[in-house]
TrEMBL record:
This is Methyltransferase. It comes from the Eukaryota. Its main location: membrane. Gene3D superfamilies: Vaccinia Virus protein VP39. It comes from Cucumis sativus (Cucumber). The lineage of its organism: Eukaryota, Viridiplantae, Streptophyta, Embryophyta, Tracheophyta. InterPro entries: Put_SAM_MeTrfase, SAM-dependent_MTases_sf.
Amino acid sequence: MAISLPTFFQERKFPFLFTLSLLLVCFLFLFFTDSLTLNPLVRTYSSLRSPSSSSSPTTHAVHLNPSSSDFSSSFAHTLTWKLCDGSVAVDFIPCLDNSKAIKALQSRKHMEHRERHCPRPSPRCLIPLPLAYKVPVPWPKSRDMIWYDNVPHPKLVEYKKDQHWVVKVGEYLNFPGGGTQFKDGVDRYINFIQETLSDIKWGENIRVILDVGCGVASFGGYLLQKNVLAMSFAPKDEHEAQIQFALERGIPATLSVIGTQRLTFPDNAYDLIHCARCRVHWDADGGKPLLELNRILRPGGYFIWSATPVYRDDERDKNVWNAMVLLTKSMCWKVVKKTSDSSGTYAPLTRCISQLPVDNKGQYFNWPSPWPQRLTSKPPRLSVEPSAEEKFLEDTKQWSTVVSDVYLDKIGVNWSTVRNVLDMNAGYGGFAAALIDLPLWVMNVVPIDEPDTLSIIFDRGLIGLYHDWCESFNTYPRTYDLLHSSFLFTSLKKRCDVVATVVEMDRILRPGGYVLIRDNMEAIKVLGSIFHSLQWSVSVYQDQLLVGKKGFWRP
């Protein structure tokens, strides 16, 4: 029956039809614009998949050509996944386990066999899981105990059983806080250092330190409660899996060695460098190892070199001490206290002393502000260009907003499971600074082809290193809970095999871990297709943030 216009309004049918029409318009708008702006996380990776993608668990059709200028779907490339094989496959580190290159070395005198020797091309095999691998013990409990099945290496337990580095108790490996130098416990040792030299104020003027030859990193682990961030490092050597133990515990650590090449840290980075019976011949080769420490130690910083009393009367160690005294005097170091406790990236080492840092007016840089003001105040080595400080403050503000408004609440990341974080291109360290109140730590990476901001990161009281993402990272498999990048892959695809980079990310990320990748949609579609082929769950937020979660799947 026809309804007249007055009757239509009188019967109040207009509001209903108007509302229905409005809803229809909204639906059509969302359908045709393909936007996530109003509903940010409902679009999972299925809407981004290539039509030719296979559902097979080992072979997936992916449209990409990583070496091409067209980073999107330039041709169909089939990825077939397989597990790495061999006796070291579970703990495989491509650039440190390149047996062919190591066997071909002409000399091992300067620890060349412990340095990086990256295979070409980068491997694309996937790392198998240990047989009974479990979700890691959460922090802070993990500082003192981890699952044995996650790092099933008994050699160090037996080798150091009398020094209480690590003890196997049932299903766990326990870390009682002992060590070669910590016979009365690491807490006692840390307090002894501060009592010996009152100028050292842990967590105030001493914030970022380097622990050389760190063992299982108990020194750095216990300093965390004093707001000290220690970069613990040691080579991959006969002390089986010590750095793997450290990272499984949730303690910052990296694999490195003082050999023939510079360490991958900037000049004048650390407030304090510590070495407890670390077996480094500091005076060797004209003092190159100690000169390398001089390069990365901040002017006014401290070098603490300690050994247990058993070595005090050893003739060789006496000679080393005397040689060290002569060397440090020649470098203008000052011995501030001698006491006893009653209880880079392929740059060669040199014999020269690095210059003190100055600004463009020739003025020496000041020591950074005390922690925590250091995190947000102007870094001493920030450029003096008029716009530099404004750019730095804007970057800090932007990351604070992105983290608080998006990352923490809207993308489905369970931050209570996140302890070890890797920022693949850290810039000024704004992402790490924005996370400072969470119980986690961030390894800030500055890629070798991006502006060098690593000294600014250290000035802020954060840690990091240089790296080339065309190669594998110096860490064991399954050592990070979250990987983050911001517009890294747009430039990376010009130099690197993007598939190999994703395989490396899969290697170092723990099952259940996350990737957060900010980039353009062209890059996100390619990366998403690769992650999907690895059986990861993938979602996209507002057409600029890929959120991936790694599962336990292996081919």
